[in-house]
Structures are given as structure tokens and as C-alpha cells.
Design brief:
The protein is an alpha/beta fold. The chain has two domains: 118 residues, 3-Layer(aba) Sandwich (Rossmann fold), CATH 3.40.50; 95 residues, Arc Repressor Mutant, subunit A. The protein is 41% helix and 21% strand. The protein is built from eight helices and eleven strands. The chain has a five-stranded parallel beta sheet with strand order 2-1-3-4-5, sandwiched between helices. Helix 3 links the parallel strand 3 and strand 4. Helix 6 packs across helix 8. The longest helix is centred in the middle third of the chain and has 15 residues.
Length: 227
């Protein structure tokens, strides 16, 4: 499963709380707000992989938020979540730049699947299997293999490795890891990121296998094929 940062803008407290808990248990870093004004503020100030956006919101409605984001050329993927199920409502949302549409009531498994698909689309990863050299990451089963052998990772180690794999060949800074993989109120310092990366690196290199995670001093980390 692709696990990244999500903004949930939903005014119905029971749904907001249950969805937030479910997404966090599934490995997403979630910011959840209850009205459109706060939702727009978060959307404009943070970098999210997906925004789950209700249409009927206090203060500013969801379509106005979506229109504002697209006028600002914000490319974030938006999943409209609403009780409105008429064809006209769906068309309006999609025409304003929504990427997907889910009508209440819905099953959490479907919400999760749609989020995973949107995150993969952002990183141009059509398949749930990520490959970097002899490394294979199954983002659905959360299983990592190298040279055919399963690598046992903790939840935090897996999330960091998956994010590096989605940006394979690119420099990923410590700040990027903190921002995308942790809730704002729980963000760790950069030292703990170094500790996690070092642990992942050791596990990937067991048995004398070549190094996949390179450190770019003063910049961050790069996951790429050896050589």
C-alpha cells in the first residue's frame, strides 16, 4: 500500500474520526479538519498526496475550495467525498479538476483502494509492485524482497523505503520524509530519520549485497541501482 500524506476535509465528526483512524492504521499520515475555511488553509500551506474533500462544508463549500486550488495551479489529487450522487454533481466536481469521486455511504476498503490508486498515479506507478534493481516492494501486501528473499522491516522502516522507491533516482531530504510520512504533531527530528534509514540500509545489505540507499551529504538520500 502506498502510504503518504492525506488531508481530510469532512464536517461530519463520526465519519471524520473513523476515516482518520482507519487511514492512520493503514499507514497514512493524516491531517483532518471540519470546515472549508480551515481545509483551504491547510491545502494551500501543506503539501499533500491526496485531499479527501467533502462538498457540503461550513464556511466554504468543497467546490469553492477545489476551484481555488486549481486556479492557483495546485496539482494535488482531489477525491470528492459527498452524499450528493446526482450526475450533475459528479460532472461539476470532475470539470473543476477533481480526480475521483466517492459517494456516501461507502466502504472503507473502497476509499483506501481509490487513495492508493491516486498516489500511484502521482508517482507514475501503475503497478502496486515497485522495482529498483533486485529490490521488489509490494505496496499492497507491504512486503519487501531483495534477490527473492523477504526483508523484515518495521512499519516506519517500510514507509521510508517505499517513499524512497517512489522517488527512485531522486534526492529525498530528511525534511521531505518528515513532512510526507508523519502527522504534523508527531514529526520526529532529523536524527531519528537517519537512524531508520541506517537500519533499512543494514537489512537490505545483509549477506554482502550491494548498497541501494546512497547518502548525499548535506542533501539527503537516493535509492538507486548499484553502479
Amino acid at each position: 500500500m502506498v502510504s503518504m500524506r492525506v488531508l481530510l476535509v469532512e464536517d461530519y465528526a463520526p465519519l471524520r474520526k473513523s476515516a482518520t483512524q482507519g487511514l492512520r492504521e493503514a499507514g497514512f499520515a493524516v491531517d483532518a479538519v471540519a470546515d472549508g475555511e480551515e481545509g483551504l488553509s491547510y491545502a494551500e500551506s501543506g503539501e499533500y498526496d491526496v485531499i479527501i474533500l467533502d462538498l457540503m462544508l461550513p464556511k466554504i463549500d468543497g467546490l469553492a475550495i477545489l476551484r481555488r486550488l486549481r486556479e492557483e495551479a495546485n496539482p494535488v489529487h482531489v477525491l470528492i467525498l459527498t452524499a450528493k450522487d446526482t450526475l450533475d454533481d459528479r460532472v461539476r466536481g470532475l470539470n473543476l479538476g477533481a480526480d475521483d469521486y466517492l459517494v456516501k455511504p461507502f466502504g472503507f476498503a473502497e476509499l483506501l483502494a481509490r487513495l492508493q490508486a491516486l498516489v500511484r498515479r502521482k508517482y507514475s506507478a501503475k503497478s502496486p509492485l515497485l522495482h529498483v534493481g533486485d529490490l521488489e516492494i509490494d505496496t499492497i501486501a507491504k512486503q519487501v524482497r531483495r534477490s527473492g528473499h523477504v526483508i523484515d522491516l518495521t512499519a516506519h522502516e517500510y514507509r521510508i523505503l517505499e517513499y524512497l522507491a517512489l522517488r527512485a533516482g531522486q534526492v529525498v531530504t530528511r525534511a521531505m520524509v518528515c513532512e510526507r510520512l508523519y502527522d504534523f504533531e508527531k514529526e520526529p527530528g532529523s536524527n531519528i530519520i537517519d537512524v531508520y534509514v541506517a537500519s533499512v540500509r543494514r537489512k537490505l545489505e545483509e549477506g554482502g549485497l550491494p548498497r541501494l540507499i546512497q547518502t548525499r551529504r548535506g542533501l539527503g538520500y537516493v535509492l538507486k541501482e548499484p553502479g
